[in-house]
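Input record, target 12 of the design panel.
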């Protein structure tokens, strides 16, 4: 089975005949007169997909997330999220950064309630109830009254995830949220993240440098090359859900980890038809 979409060839509808939830077409990004960060990026993402972006440092993975979120202006091209430009879709998106970015003067409960406070659509009691439910979902009910400085790195990241999910986003953007954690903690949080996805049904774009993490989490893995950032491979992940730790020892999983790793090693080679010059 060929798991690879051709670069630049993307479906106009998902398998159910609906338009893609997230559409990126002919995207270019440069800062001022500097070199291009991203060049001619086209990508279609269906509702419920979990897309991992992987590639060398400087290939524009984080920049692509910021463009989708509307935090950074587009130089050329288009992005639509559920038919809206990013600036108009912010209410249906949440962003999780590599650092937990918790407010140190707020308790765990207070940090989770923050997005709900800013929305101003709930009463105080409704916010507390929602935050309490989310803390239970991420296994942190017993630390609700603590402050970020009293938590481990993994616990702080779970608070960050709970805060992001409090507003019921339809698109979750994650920029290496587990990159600073040890392998055991990261693996556990990967499994918890997929359980949350199963319960809430959001679409995800996830930046990582870990091939194993990308294969475990994703429905598709997009491999980017650098200078400028362009899509080199779009690899479908064939494993169904739910997924648990037993997948990590499955020969098919290990084979796909090897395939994606090989794709990264081949980034310095010219694409078919490019030629060797330039």
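The sequence produced for target 12 reads:
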């Amino acid at each position: 089975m060929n798991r690879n979409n051709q670069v630049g060839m993307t479906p106009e509808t998902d398998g159910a005949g609906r338009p893609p939830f997230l559409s990126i077409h002919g995207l270019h990004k440069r800062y001022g007169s500097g070199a291009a960060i991203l060049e001619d990026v086209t990508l279609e993402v269906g509702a419920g997909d979990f897309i991992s972006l992987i590639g060398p440092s400087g290939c524009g993975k984080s920049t692509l997330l910021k463009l989708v979120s509307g935090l950074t202006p587009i130089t050329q091209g288009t992005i639509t999220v559920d038919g809206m430009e990013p600036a108009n879709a912010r209410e249906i998106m949440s962003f999780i950064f590599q650092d937990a970015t918790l407010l140190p003067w707020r308790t765990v409960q207070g940090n989770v309630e923050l997005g709900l406070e800013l929305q101003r659509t709930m009463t105080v009691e409704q916010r507390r109830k929602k935050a309490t439910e989310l803390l239970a979902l991420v296994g942190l009910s017993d630390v609700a009254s603590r402050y970020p400085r009293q938590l481990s790195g993994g616990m702080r990241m779970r608070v960050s995830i709970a805060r992001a999910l409090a507003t019921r986003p339809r698109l979750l953007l994650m920029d290496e949220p587990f990159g600073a954690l040890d392998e055991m903690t990261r693996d556990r949080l990967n499994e918890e993240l997929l359980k949350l996805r199963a319960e809430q049904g959001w679409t995800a774009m996830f930046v990582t440098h870990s091939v194993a993490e990308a294969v475990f989490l994703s429905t598709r893995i997009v491999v980017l090359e650098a200078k400028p950032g362009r899509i080199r491979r779009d690899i479908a992940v064939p494993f169904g859900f739910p997924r648990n730790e037993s997948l990590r020892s499955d020969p098919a999983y290990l084979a796909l980890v090897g395939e994606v790793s090989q794709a990264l090693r081949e980034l310095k080679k010219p694409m078919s038809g490019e030629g060797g010059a330039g």
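Residues 6-11, 273-278 have pLDDT under 50 and may be disordered.
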